[in-house]
Design goal:
- The complex is a heterodimer of chains A (114) and B (112).
- Chain A has no helices and ten strands.
- Chain A is mainly β and 114 residues long.
- In chain A, strand 8 and strand 9 form a beta hairpin.
- Chain A starts with a strand and ends with a strand.
- Chain B is globular and about 40 Å long.
- In chain B, the strands form two sheets. In chain B, strands 2, 4, 5, 9, 10 and 11 form a six-stranded mixed β-sheet that branches. Chain B has a five-stranded antiparallel β-sheet with strand order 1-3-8-7-6, with no helix packed on it.
- Chain B is 0% helix and 56% strand.
- Classes of the chains: A mainly beta (114), B mainly beta (112).
- Chains A and B meet through strand 4, strand 5 and strand 9 of A and strand 4, strand 5, strand 9 and strand 10 of B.
């Protein structure tokens, strides 16, 4: 079946502009995670959605970052007033539940802020 | 919060040799430890995981060991092949699994 998809695959933007990154999780997966991966670094947790529960936003680095998940499926990560330090690969993952089920990652969106 | 450290950052081995990657964690409440393989341009893929009630788990050429007392866990790859070349990440999570803490990654190069 289809895996986790993300769009766009690459995004180049100018400093100060807003960007939206999209994640389509695997159908039926109730848990959705966003991570940021800077060059040569590990994955930094950003936000977690589980079903209809309030999301865990504790990893968002600033109030310029926000995310939503509509209808318990598609998620959008929005970065307002982008800065050069926001340049990274943004990865989305989904899992069937939150009980330690395998996280399936998408291919990521490479964001470059000029 | 949890802090996961991973070593080495790069590892080069000859095809057929074994490779070992080690991670330590700080939060004794962490109880789930997955390992991911990330190939160039792709998202990480789970290759093996272990829970805190188990000391060792094996799947063909890969194995993971966990020492809860010392708070460290290791990935072992035997009979390495060139297709094992990738970046490997360890991670740790607590019982609610809403947050995973990742190591900084190990770039494994298997020379033919």
């Amino acid at each position: 079946g289809a895996g986790v998809s993300q769009s766009p695959s690459n995004k180049v933007t100018e400093k100060g502009k807003d960007v939206e990154l999209r994640c389509d999780p695997i159908s039926g997966h109730t848990a959705l995670y966003w991570y940021r991966q800077s060059l040569g670094q590990g994955l930094e947790f950003l936000i977690y959605f589980q079903g209809n529960s309030a999301p865990d936003k504790s990893g968002l680095p600033s109030d310029r970052f926000s995310a939503e998940r509509t209808g318990g499926s598609v998620s959008t990560l929005t970065i307002q007033r982008t800065q050069q330090e926001d340049s990274a690969v943004y990865l989305c993952a989904s899992s069937l539940a939150h009980s330690g089920d395998t996280q399936y990652f998408g291919p990521g969106t490479r964001l470059t802020v000029l | 919060g949890e802090n996961v450290e991973q070593h080495p950052s790069t590892l080069s081995v000859q095809e057929g040799d074994s490779a070992v990657i080690k991670c330590t964690y700080s939060d004794s409440a962490s109880n789930y430890f997955p390992w991911y393989k990330q190939e160039l341009g792709k998202g990480p893929q789970l290759i093996i995981d272990i829970r805190s009630n188990v000391g060792e788990k094996k799947d063909q050429r890969i194995a993971v060991t966990l020492n809860k007392t010392a708070k460290h866990f290791s990935l072992h790859i035997t009979e390495t092949q060139p297709e094992d070349s990738a970046v490997y990440f360890c991670a740790a999570s607590k019982g609610n699994f809403n947050k995973f803490y990742f190591g900084s990654g190990t770039k494994l190069n298997v020379k033919p």
